[in-house]
Amino acid sequence: MARKIIAVIGGSKPDAKSLKTAEEVGSLIAQNNGVLITGGMGGVMKAASKGAKNAGGLVIGILPTTKKESANPYVDIPIVTGMSEARNMIIARTCDAAIAIDGKYGTLSEIAFCLIFDVPVIGLDTWDINAPIIKAKSAKQAVEIIFEDILK
Prior knowledge:
By secondary structure, the chain is of the alpha/beta class. It contains five helices and seven strands.
């Protein structure tokens, strides 16, 4: 059976709490044998990538740039798109579920694409919109929801 691909989406300039949460989420995804996919850059993306990598996980970065070198240092597989925010659609199409942490309009677009494509979204201190986002109170709960309820 193919490994599940879990997106972590979120702010590029989050607060310390969101960074800690993202790193924990990344670690828990790896511990559950999931593959992490992010936008490959800084902030929540880098923190989740660090957590996954330090837990022995595989990290894919869908880069908005035209250079592999722009990926954060924890990305194993950088995918160069040169598409800026349009790369968010690739992340949403590729993942089996997504966890949104913090974030601004880029994160909102990723949430929207996931919902359009019927990809479940778990929210941790992110957009509070009138949409079917499953709210979680902790990194552990968010990952448990994905692996024990949604993807079982």
